[in-house]
Design brief:
Two copies of one chain form a homodimer.
Chain A lengths: L22 H18 L6 H13 L3 E2 H10 L6 H13 L3 E4 L4 E4 L9 E6 L5 E5 L6 H9 L2 E12 L1 H8 L1
Parallel strand pairs in A: 4-6
Antiparallel strand pairs in A: 1-3, 2-3, 4-5
Helix pairs in contact in A: 1-2, 2-4, 3-4
Chain B binds a DNA duplex (30 and 30 nucleotides) through helix 4.
Chain lengths: 172, 172
DNA sequence: CGGCTCCGTGTGATTTTATAACGTTACAGA
DNA sequence: TCTGTAACGTTATAAAATCACACGGAGCCG
């Protein structure tokens, strides 16, 4: 019910990690994928929502809701917090973005359309965030939950540490 | 450097899950363990900190910082936010409590002194929280991090879903 | 077309969560 | 005892999130 098979063709940027990649292509492909997904699922990919997604992709980092709001205002949209929160809520609800709880911030999804049990690597030095996969709910966590009679619906995994660049500096 | 082997003897309450258990014993044992740990590590287990821990244990649920503040004020301590935040920061830093990022709330550690890669099961219906273990960093997440050159220092795992009680109601 | 409803948007106001800054007190070690 | 540091209490402020309400456009039905 939630998705037919919309954005299964995902952008040509390298999916995981801290490497650089083809940014312009990454953005336009992700936006197109979102558009297709919305069209196919009766969702309205409105200007604010599109712009919010573009901003997240453009920045390519975790953005606070108020940073998002600033940028949306600059782009001519409303200037009150709900504008940003609503757009972000839509993006998160539909898998185009994720919320990083630890940072109270949002980041574009790096694997749009993919199966999705995302995990995040957060650098404590430079605040960069990388998205990766984690089968948390299928490992020991799933076992523990089952043993406790708990029915897992969603799992959040966020690891803090040092990204390659910052780890290098720290060692030097 | 961080711990000799202080609170390795942990309280006689059942460690995981949503079952009931011996509460009074649980509390006094956990407080005693914290006291021992602090004494052995040059940490000051001051009245506010002790009271904050007692409150968390007493409530046996995730408590917001301002709820904690209310109770500390009732107990005769300061009445401004930093009072609660500082006590909670101490408890978290020393492993006596954990922050549930998803709820912006704090809960007493259910395995004081144990090895500690905690994970949490959060009921979306009743907001109860259970602590369990997760070897997240040693599974696929660890592999991905290593591949990316990321050095994990801490991992946060929080699963949302339905606790046994609420799942039962939902099915009925 | 006209009227209806739903959903999304814009705005003002407020609530909730968290930190900054500063003076005072209490404690441990020289 | 003296001295440095850590903890505490307070005022003030910042940051994050939500509430409530009005307006307007898209789709639907007659």
């Amino acid at each position: 019910m939630t998705s037919g098979n919309p954005a299964a063709n995902h952008p040509p940027c390298e999916p995981v990690g801290f490497e650089t990649h083809d940014h312009a292509g990454c953005i336009s492909a992700a936006v197109a994928a979102a558009e297709t997904h919305c069209a196919g699922n009766g969702l309205r990919f409105t200007p604010v929502r599109r712009k919010a997604l573009e901003i997240l992709l453009q920045e390519h980092r975790a953005l606070g809701a108020y940073e998002m709001l600033d940028r949306l205002r600059d782009a001519g949209f409303g200037s009150q917090p709900p504008v940003a929160y609503r757009a972000l809520e839509f993006l998160v609800a539909n898998g185009f973005a994720h919320k990083i709880e630890r940072l109270n911030a949002f980041i574009a999804c790096a694997h749009p359309g993919a199966s999705h049990s995302p995990a995040f690597l957060i650098c404590t030095a430079c605040s960069s965030v990388a998205e990766t996969q984690s089968a948390a709910a299928r490992g020991s966590l799933g076992d523990a939950a089952r043993a406790a009679g708990f029915r897992i619906e969603r799992t959040m995994v966020e690891a803090e540490g040092l990204c390659p660049a910052c780890a290098g500096k720290a060692d030097a």
